[in-house]
Amino acid sequence: MPQVPDPVEQKLPVNQLMPLALQHVLVMYAGAVAVPLIVGRALNLSPQEVAFLISADLFACGIATLIQSWGFPGVGIRLPVMMGVTFASLGPMLSIAASSDAGLLGIFGSVIGAGIFGILIAPFVSRLLPLFPPVVTGTIILIIGVSLMRVGINWAGGGQPTITRVVDGVPGAFPNPDYAAPQGLMIAGFVLLFILALLKWAKGFVRNVAVLLGIVAGCVVASVLGLMHFERVGQADWIGLVMPFHFGMPTFHLVPILTMCIVMIVVMIESLGMFLALGEMTGRKVDRAALTRGLRADGLGTLIGGIFNTFPYTSFSQNVGLVGVTGIRSRWVTVAGGGIMILLGLMPKMSALVESVPQVVLGGAGLVMFGMVAATGARILGTVDFKKNPNNLFVVAISVGFGMIPIVAPNFFKSLPHDLHPLLESGILLAAISSVLMNLFFNGIVSEKEAEEEATKAATTAEHA
Fold it and tell me: What's the whole-model pTM score?
């Protein structure tokens, strides 16, 4: 009987590989550049310095993605993963930037410290696998998808409902006049319908790149309507080197480093859920050794980020959703995506071209991709026995409630100490902590062997789904 080839190791022809890789880059690009853009503007850096932050981020994104997807001895999950700057670090970094003792160089120092911390604790975090049976992983992945829907909806609306402006030297929040403009909603709806039409009627390779073709079609419509501009493309240089410590040697301060280490724990717990989700989608067993390699790559990517003038890195859940939509499970697609990110970082003109894609175009695609993540969580929960063990219902119900708090009530924890906000503002982390504790309370803990058997069974189920 011939052996079935491993879809994760499948090497596609170049004419298929590159469009699929570019599709991964496009769906993560807006999120990848958002953090350096916000931090740079908050620090009142010059446009040239902000542009360098973005190029450095893209360059480091590519390196971190290669480490994670391609893998090296002892490092990298070797699954289709794209790495990007985590939004969980944004609030703490803005607080660090506001400190006269730390500033931008203090941010880079804290990122380097957090990266080293992440590398050291990766083996210990990976031992948490017995705490994540299907009732827990399904709940976490469901909340990941629901949390991402807020991102996709705001993309479809053209940005955030409120924008920050500085008036008389004081920053303040003001309604975004362009949010949910009818023209933008029309484009997002067009992209969504275009993708759905391809998913229903197209076949083969065209169906696999439905999201990319939808984004291209949306860009054409946006250009015709005058919403896509290319002035920055013409002004950008063709080549720009990204040098370590461009802004100077990082400075190291205890409190910022401890704060960023807490963020690193948040990031690694979220990554744990991402890796388990990818294991389900790809049919690949994700055991403790694989989790250690993946989490160690998160730490190494963050360390590299601090060296190359950028920020903490994590596995981007947007791209997990894309794996679910396309059904393409080859890690070599994201390896090629990592190479594209490195080139974008070294070619400011090309990165400016990708940056010109309007958010409303990405929003139409985001609704499909992020919904697929939530659907994966629901499918995993479908394998849970709620009839014989009705307590599993309480695990899911309570954990979903906690995970929804930051989404439906962002100010719910505003009276608690500010240092706790990185933990409390992540619905994914709240759902993870709640589901683990509720499962321990109702069901106890299984042995490591049983946990690996459950992971193998779930992977087998996903492979035949």
Answer: 0.66
